[in-house]
Structures are given as structure tokens and as C-alpha cells.
Design goal:
The complex is a heterodimer. By secondary structure, chain A is an alpha+beta fold. Chain A is built from twelve helices and ten strands. In chain A, the strands form two sheets. Chain A has an eight-stranded antiparallel beta sheet with strand order 2-3-4-5-1-8-10-9. In chain A, strands 6-7 form a two-stranded antiparallel ribbon. In chain A, a hairpin with a 3-residue loop joins strand 6 and strand 7. The chains are: A alpha+beta, B mainly alpha.
Chain lengths: ~350, ~170
Amino acid sequence: MNQPFVAAISQIGPDSDVVVTSRVRIARNISGFPFSSRASNPVLQEILRVVRRAVDHSPHATPIDQGLRWIELQSASSRDRTLLCERHLVSRNFATSDKPRALALSTDENSSVMVNEEDHLRIQFLCAGSRLTDAFQSAFKLEQSLALALNFSFHQRWGYLTACPTNVGCGIRISAMLHLPGIQIMKETDRIKRAARDLHLAVRGYYGEGSESTGDFFQFSNQTTLGATEESLLGEFNDVVLPRLIGYERDARAAALARHRTKIEDVVFRAQATLCAARLLSAEAATKDLSRVRFGVIMGLIKTDLAIVQRLLLQVQPAHLSVINPIALEGDDMEREARATLVRQTLALANPEMK
Amino acid sequence: MKCDHCDKPAVIHETVIRSGVLAEVHLCAEHAIAAGYPVPIEQPIADIFPQVLGSAVKVEGAKTKERTAKCQACGLTFAAFRKTAMMGCPACYEAFMPMIAQIIERAQAGATHHVGRSPVGGDDSQRLQKLRVKLTKDLESAVAAEQYERAAQLRDELRSLDQPIRGSQP
């Protein structure tokens, strides 16, 4: 788990200039149990046991996935739990709760199942770039293999029942994490957010529900889960909404560069200079400036490999940094110094002219 | 102007699109209320006609149900659900009808039925047949009640049952 290079969030894929990651998540609950929030610890333990048996016997343990690793969150260290959170494999609530809960995770870290989050199962496929169709198929393949061993709660009218009544029906959340510096610079963010809401999409920050957007990263996801088939929800998002959002951002970038070139160069090169010179860096400041450098790389202003910047965006997060430098404490000078050194050295290696 | 359905004076005048054709609607207070319009006049409801009182009692009944509803399976009360927006168990969905139907339809942009996949191994064709019958019936009553938005939604849900890609097969 200490290797940041496996994580989807640190890789690049199709349309990575705008789309950082694609994700499909399916909520399922097992018949005969209360939902997680109303289940006692012994019941939650029993759910873990039942799901683990299903995971271990899942025919999904194909050569592609080499099976799913079982991680009990209660016995994982707080750092490991934060690592999972920083890789967008678990929610923050899931990482910090003290209830019995587990994560089943494939070796490539694309497939995972959160057990005893808000719903008994949150089956997820997360990958780099714009690959929602792959994510959709893989998530449902895993869901179906688990359905062979587990009896999912299903209602004639409402479909798959979920702890929160707003997720009933397909119980599916299709989302994409987008990097939107162009829209931000052109001051179109509010308009895009309004348009997204009109299309019944949720717009969230870097770490999902309840988080602020950091470094111009936004997560868009469907809110409607009832009254349409899974395929049509995917089609709507993948064929209509996403290409439109990507188009808006690319147009905004081109317009921004044509109209405000000097201003953009100033923002991008200032961020680059800070990252190459700073001796103390907070996680927040590093994320913000790396986002600007990412923009500069995509626009051809900075000659560095996008993959290196993408990886740094994950490596500067507190838990990932503490893997490299275990003594430092989050937020102290030693930690901020370690972060600054890592960023400076990585960027210098990637582009010797930057020194 | 007189009401479309009786000789009483019309108090609601509206232009609507019915089967693609513009039509004018004129309704008296009673027929307006029956068609789902808000009460159009200041007169106390009880004076207009006694049936409305009946529906007022029904509303009061629904309010009482909201206050007292409790899931027998897990013990969650509707009042407690209100605070957290989290259901306690699958049985809560039946226990909290009809309030929960309103909440779901509002959150789901008016959607009324699940038309997607169902668990592997279940008899999908029978479920879909039943769903088709129910959706058709709901569609007819929505049209009869001139709830056109709901009717359009039900029509879309009905159509999506005919989509070639249906997911329950692995």
C-alpha cells in the first residue's frame, strides 16, 4: 500500500488533460440485516464475515484482479487509513469511524468494496482518465459475482434499497474528477455549477461529499438513480454530460490563453518558481501550486511530464508524505520541509532547467 | 364564464396543452379543487363543499401518521428518520409510506419506479410484466388527473423497459 504509483489518482489516462479519474460506485445492502448506521457492533461483525466469505469465493478473483485483499480498518494504522482516503478508495467518514468495517481491494487498486459504510457494500471501480464505460462494466462484473453469494435487498417499486432513500433504484453513482483551471480563470465556475445542478448532477470538491475544491479539482456525479436503466444513466453522463464539460474546459483554456496570456503565464510560472524554491510547503499550498503547474504543462508552457506532476499531487498529501518521512508530524515545520524538498528535487530531476 | 363541468361560475381559467392541442380550461371552485388546483377563493373550505372537508381530514390523518409512524422491524420512528435522513432497515420503506414516496420522487426529479437491473437469479420477466402493468395503470390515472409532467415521466419509465440492453444477465 506504500507505493503511490498504483493509485488511479496518481496516474494518467485518456483525456487526462481534463479528466483526472473516472469512478462508478454501486450501493448494495444485504437482506435480513438493518442498515449499517442502525446495526450494533456484533451485527456489523457478522456482515463483515458474510461479505468476506463472498469475496473469498468470488469468481471475480480472475487473473486480471488476482483476487481482492481484505483490509480490516479497525486493525489498520491511522496512517494507512488516511493513505486509503488520499487515494480516494474510502470516504473520510469510513476512514475515521470506529465501527467494524473493512475494505476489499484488488492488487491494481481499481476494484474495491467498502463494507459497512453508509450501505453494507459500496462496490467501486476507480481508474485514471476518462474510462467510465470500463469502470461501469468492471463495477457490475464485481457486483454480479458478489450477488451469487449475497442476497441483496430489493424492492419491487424502489429497486435496490439503500440507507439513504435518495440512492434507491439503481444505487449507482457515476462520477468524474475534473481539473478545471480554464473555467476557473474565465470565472465560469458558478455558471458551470448551476448548469450541472440543472442536469441533476452533484458537484463536490477534491475529497467528495462535504469537501471544498482544492486546486481547481471538481467531482461531478449523477444524482438520479431511479426511473432510468443503469445503461441510460451511464449514457447520459458519458456521452452527453462529460464531453460537454470537457469541451467547456478546453474552450475556456484556449480563450484564457488567447485573451490573458501574460496573466496566465504569471500564475503558472509563479507557482513553478514557488515549488522549485520553497523550503517549507503545506499540503494545501503544494496542491494549489501543483494544480497550476499541471495547467502550465497541459498548455505547453512548462516542459515536464504530466505523469510526474500527477504523482506529486498524491505524494504531497500528509499520509503519503509520512511514508517517505515517518518522523515528521502533520503540519509541523519538519513535515513542511520534507514536502518542499520532495517537490523541489522531483521537479529538478524532471526538468534540469528548472533548478 | 361557466365551469366546463357544471353550471357554476368558473374561478380558474387556464390554457393547457392536451394531446398536443391548445385547450382552454374553466373550472368552478369545486372542480378546480378536484383537479388539484389550490383553493382559489377566500370562502372557508367547509362552505364550498363537504367533500373537501373529507380530504382535509385525510391530510390531518397523514400528519398524524407522520408523527406516529414507526418501523416494527428496527424501531426507527419517522421523526428520527427526519433528523438523520437515514433509514434503519429495508422494512422502513414500507413503514414510512406514503411520506417516503414523496421524499424519493422529489429527490429523484419526479421518477417513480425502478426500471433497471434486478438481482441475479430472480424471475425478471415476471417482475417486468407486473411493472409494465402498474406503470400503464399509473400513466392512465396521471393523464386522467391532467398531471402531465408525471405522465411524461411514467411514459419514459415504461419505454425504458423496452430497451434492448437489460442488465440482469451476467
